[in-house]
Amino acid sequence: MWQAFVNGSEYDLRSGEEELDDPNGDHEWGPDRTVRARVIAHLLLHGPPPLLGRVSSLHVSGARITDVLDLSGGIIEPYFEMRQCRFEREVRMAEARMHTGRLVDCYIPRLEAARLNTDGDLHLPRCSIPEGIKLTDATIGTDLMLNEATVGSGRRIRAIAADGITVSQELQASLLVTDGEVSLRGATVGSSLHMFGTVLRNTKGRYALYAPQMTVEHVASFADANRGRSSQLRDSTTPASGTPVPFTTETGSRWRTKHFECTGGVVLDDGRFGSSLVIENARFELGRDQELSLRRIQTPELNFTPRAPERGLIVLSGATVEKLLDRVGSWPRDQRLWMAGFTYQQAIPKEGHFNVRERLRWLAAATPEYSPLPYEQLALMYRNSGEDTNARAVLLAKQRRRRETLPLVGKVWGYLQDWTVAYGYRPAQAALWMALLWAASAMYFGAHPPDPLKGDESPHWNAALYALDLLLPVITIGQDNAWDPKGGPQWVAAGLILLGWILATTVATGATRLLRRQ
Fold first, then answer.
1. 388, 430, 391: which is closest to 514 by C-alpha?
2. Over the Cα atoms of the chain, what is R_g?
3. Is the pTM of this model over 0.85?
4. Which of 55, 212, 266, 504 has minimal Cβ neighbours within 10 Å of its Cβ?
């Protein structure tokens, strides 16, 4: 191994049989495959100079590493890559500095790397780490790779503790399987976060993913791992040999999709996502007191198309989104959706037809108690899109919800407005009422003509024109002032004048909206 280090070549202790070389297997690895952790630490921290024309580096495959590999606080100059190695005890790299390190397909009881600082990558693909990973306040110079790793929490709550971590480029955690909380509070990712086909489980605590105040400069994806994304997964450990894509059946003839699955609460509160947040076709299993919480997130695009969870809450309160892509079946329908203060400029159905009636049901589920802001937000979105009819339908629904909160007198007045003029949001309905009133009043005054006011100077009596003159405000055609109704006709005339003002104002308001839109 010493000679391989100064020569920059691989030190391979594998037998060549897949079953015997599995670091997670039950087969014993004898002394011929055993390396002391202290020797590896010596090479990485104080290794000999390389041979002329060579670059010293540590490439070890198939080794059993005894004792604790402790590199804490050290400066690791050479590149190292360890494949299919079995560590008997934990690896410690807290506050160490290094260029690039890769541990691929290894068994590591626990990785302690708080405040680790790398100039290049830290790769842990296909590793099995049953006692968890600690990367609190670590700084990764390029990429952090956790693809296909299996990480447990042991006797702790957290499987991955990475609060305050900074990853300059991509954080790839596709096909990752965790048992315990994944904590990324205050994490910063300079490019994208990918969790394609990842399975997060935490049955011992409240959260499976706890990542408030996280900042991702481009895309954060919690979505399917499928054939369309296979190239990303296959090339994810370059310049290592790549991650195999396990999407074929036993015959190798068909591709299948692996969903993002999460058992336990998810918190992405106050997150900032520079391009988009994608929660696509995901499966969430929440307890009754658990949430998929997106409070106060900010992103240009929210792609929200998971399968609606059977229990728990979806919370979008205070979130700010420019474009919402969703589908009807992604939202709970039994008041388990909270979105007070949620603002968006566009809401586009990504799958199926999400018409205004479905949107109103969506709002009703999100507002068990009446709140005007969600309705006004949806109406503004429709109006900005030129869909004025849908905007009026939303505002009418808002008035109807508001009516239910009023006392009895207010409810009666509200029902009267709804039946007659639809709160002013259906001008055609007001025009129809005007036409019916005109016809009914013309028939009434035809049967009960009033006396002329000035005898022979009065115009020729016309019941239809007289009724129309009473019904139309402002405009006069010389009939209403020429006749003197008394008794019942007088009350009918007064009622027509009042109703005419109300209905004509509604019709004029609708016409004004139409002209303004055009």
1. 388
2. 36
3. no
4. 55
